[in-house]
Amino acid sequence: MTEKEVEYMDYLTEKGILPKLLEILKQMSAMDPPPADPLMYILHALGCPLIPQAQMKALERKVSRAHDELRYLRRLLIDLDGEDQLYDSYSDDDEYVGAVEDPNESYDDYADEAAAQAQDEASGATADGSAQDQQELYNH
């Protein structure tokens, strides 16, 4: 090994990385059968939080829907002249109102969106997401 490689190995040993990885590899070598995904096993053994892709996508959809609903409710409050209810301080309006795409949009546009959402809910989806999204969350 080169001098640089030796220095790096000493650094990894000093910081406890190499001993921990060697311990995990020894555990894996004793497993019968070996893990189906060794990298995922190593990450799990190191304590890395692992979120399955399907669960992550379901959570992203849920957050997106919550943001949409929040924008709708903020715009509705503004349309009903309730701007003073949006915040308790003298901070910038944009910080609290959020990015409303078209400031000239009327309440009717949002009412149409709410009606479409209500129709979706009536057809089997819930306010917290579709049954499929919820199933994805509980399966993982």
Could you characterize what this model shows?
This is c-Myc-binding protein homolog. Residues 89-112 have a biased composition (Acidic residues). The structure is a single chain. With 140 residues, the chain is mainly alpha-helical. It folds into two domains: 3-45, no CATH class; 53-139, no CATH class. Helices cover 64% and strands 0% of the residues. The protein contains seven helices and no strands. Helix 2 crosses helix 3 (38-45) and helix 4 (53-79) crosses helix 7 (131-139). Mean pLDDT is 74; it is low at 124-129.
Core attributes:
140 residues, mainly alpha, 2 domains, elongated
| Helix/strand/pairing category | mainly alpha
* Coarse morphology: elongated
Give helix % range: 55-70%
N-end to C-end Cα span? 44 Å
Count of runs of 4 or more consecutive helical residues: 7
Number of domains: 2
Protein name: c-Myc-binding protein homolog
Organism: Drosophila kikkawai (Fruit fly)
How would you sum up this structure in a few lines?
The protein is an all-alpha fold.
Give me the secondary-structure topology.
Layout: H1 3-14, H2 17-29, H3 38-45, H4 53-79, H5 93-97, H6 107-122, H7 131-139
Helix pairs in contact: 2-3, 4-7
